[in-house]
Amino acid sequence: MRVRFDHVSVTLGGRDVLRDVDVEIRPGRFLGLVGPNGSGKSTLLRTLYRAVAPSSGRVLLDERDVWRTGRREVARSVAVMTQETSTEFDLTVLDAVLLARVPFQRGFGRDTDADLDLAWTALERVGAADVADRPIGRLSGGQRQRVMLARALAADTPVLVLDEPTNHLDIAFQLELMRIATDLDRTIIAALHDLNLAATHCDDIAVLDGGRLVAAGTPAEALTPQVVEDVFRVAVDRLTHPRTGRPVLVFDHPGREPGGPTEHRDEIHA
Amino acid sequence: MVVRPRSPASSVDRDRRSFTRRSRLTQRLTVAVLGLAIPVLVVVSGSVGTVEVGVADAARIVIGHLAPNVPWMSDGSLTVLQDQAVWQFRLPRALLAGLAGAGLALAGAIMQVIVRNPLAEPYLLGVSSGAGVGAVLVITLGSAAVGGLPLGAAAFAGALVAGACVALTARHRSVLSPTRMILSGVALGSLFSAVTSYLTLTTEAQNVFSVLFFLLGSVSAASMGSLAVPAVAFAVACAVVGFRTRAMNALLTGDESATALGVDVNRQRGVLLVTAALLTGSIVSVSGGIGFVGLVIPHVARILVGADHRRMLPVAVLGGAAFLMLADLLSRTVAAPAEVPIGILTAVVGAPFFLWLMRRDTAAQAGLDR
Q1: What is the pLDDT of residue B10?
Q2: Is the ipTM above a cut-off of 0.85?
Q3: Is the separation of the CB atoms in A219 and A192 below 8 Å?
Q4: Angle at A41 (CA atoms; ends A39, A43), nearest 5 degrees
Q5: Chain A, nearest residue to B249 by Cα
Q6: Residue of A nearest to B259 (CA)
Q7: B318: number of CA atoms within 13 Å, CB side?
Q8: d(Cα A59, Cα A68) in Å, to the nearest integer?
Q9: Under CATH, which architecture does the B23-365 domain have?
C-alpha cells in the first residue's frame, strides 16, 4: 500500500509543528524518518494514524484520504508501535498482543483461532513467546518493546508505523528489530534517532528539521555530512566500514578542528 | 532477555493450547460458582428473619410467585405472614442488594478504565455526594425545598447534577482528560459534602439518624417497585459496555495506542462516563452511598481472571452481586433484631478479605506491586 503525505502542515496551540511536508512511500518500501528532538517526526506519524489532524494537506493511503476514512478502517490498514504504553492495569503479554485485533473484531466475542495464530506467530518472531502469560508491567523496558513490536506485527496490516522503536533496546535487539522490519513485505515508516541504523536498514530516508522536510532520498542522497551537520548541529565525518564498505557517520562536538583533539578534550584529560 | 532458539512446532502448539485452556477454565469456574451462589443467597435471605420460614419454604414461595398454578401456594401449607415476609420484604431487599452490588462493581470497573487509575470508583464523579445533597435536602427541609420531589428522585437529580458539573469542569477544548476528571471530582465532591454536613449539623436531632442511614447506604427500604429504575439502568449499562469490551481493553494501554487501534478515545470515554454516572446515580438514589464495592470488586475480579474486560466484567458483576447479598444477609443477622447499615458491613467484611487477597502472589501478577 502506498502512503503519501501531501503537503501536510500541522499547527498545535498556535505553533507550526509541521510545514508543508510532502513525502511519498511506495508500496513495500521502508522509510526512515530522522531529525532532532522536536523536529516533528512523531507528529507526522500521528497524522497518519489519525491522532493529529493536519491543518492543511492530506494524508493518503493509496487514493484514500485517511481523514475522510473511518478510524477502524484506517487501523485495519495501519498498525502502530507507539512510544509508550500505560501499565496501570496489567494485561498479560498475550492479551496485549491480541489488542492488535481490536479493529477487526467487535464486542464480547472470543478471539478466533486465526487471531490467536497471528498473536503467537508475532510473539515467536520477536522472541517473546516464553513470557506470553506474564503481565506486561513486570517486563523490562526492552522486553516490553518486543511485545509492542509483536502487537504491531500481529495486526497484519499492509502499513507499519514505528515511532522510535529502538528506545530501551540493547544493540543486539536493535539490530534484530531492524532485521525483522526489513524482512517484512510491508510499507514501513519509522522515526529513528540512530542515523547509522537508519542508513543501513532503510530504503529511503526523510530528514525533518523544525517541521520542514530538508532532505529526502536514498540514505546516501539524504544523509550527506552537510545535511547532518546543518540539521543536528554536530561535526560529522563519513568513514567507510572496513568490512562491508558502507559509509558510516561518526559525530563530534561542533566547531572541532578536523584531525586533532579539541581544547575541550584536553581539559577533560588534564 | 535470552533469545531462545525456536522450539519445535509441536511443543509450541501444546503450550499454546494448555495456556489458553487454563485461562478460560479459571474464568468459567469463577462465573459458575458465583452464578450458583446468587440463587442460593436469594433463598437463604428469604428464610432469615423474625418470621420463621424454612429454607425449603422460602424457595417454594419464590418459585410459587414466578411459576403459575403451583399446588403449594393454595393448599394452606404456607401462612400469609410467611408469604408476605419473603415476597414483600426479604426478596426485594436481597434483589436490591444484588442489583446494587452488580451495578456498583460495573460502574467502578468503567470508572477505572475511563481515568485509567486503580483508585477510581463510582463515586469519583461526585455522584454520591451530589445524591447526598439531594437526599439530605428532602430529609432536613422536606420535599417542598426541592420542588416536591420524593427522596429517591431528589437524590437521583443531585447525582446527575454533580456528575454533569464534574464532566463540564473537566472538559477542556472538548477533551476529557483523566487527571482533570479525578481532580474536579475530588474538589466538587468535597464541596457537596460540605453542604451535606452543614445541613446535617443545623437540622433537628431526629433527622440526623435518617441522614446517616442514607449516607452509609441501606437496602432495607426496598420494594419491588424501587428495583425498576436501577434494573433498567443496569440493563442499559450492560448493553453499552457489552459492545465496548475490546475498546475498553484498548483504553487500558493509553490514549495514544488506543487511537492507533482505531478507537475514538474521546467519544468512548464520554459514552462510558455518562453510562457510569446514570448507573451509579440510579443505584445511589435507592440504596444510598454503599461504599467499597465499586472500588474493590473490580480489583478482585482482575486478580482472579486478569484485566481483559471480556473475562473480568462478568466476574465483577456477579461477584459484586453475591458480595452485597451476603453483606445484606449479615447486616440483618449479626446484631438481630437491630440492623447494621450495609455500608459498614461491606467495609468490615470486605477490607480484611481484600487486604489478604492483595498480599498474595497472584495479586503481584495482576500488577499490584507498583
Answers
A1: 45
A2: yes
A3: no
A4: 100
A5: A99
A6: A51
A7: 18
A8: 10
A9: Orthogonal Bundle (1.10)
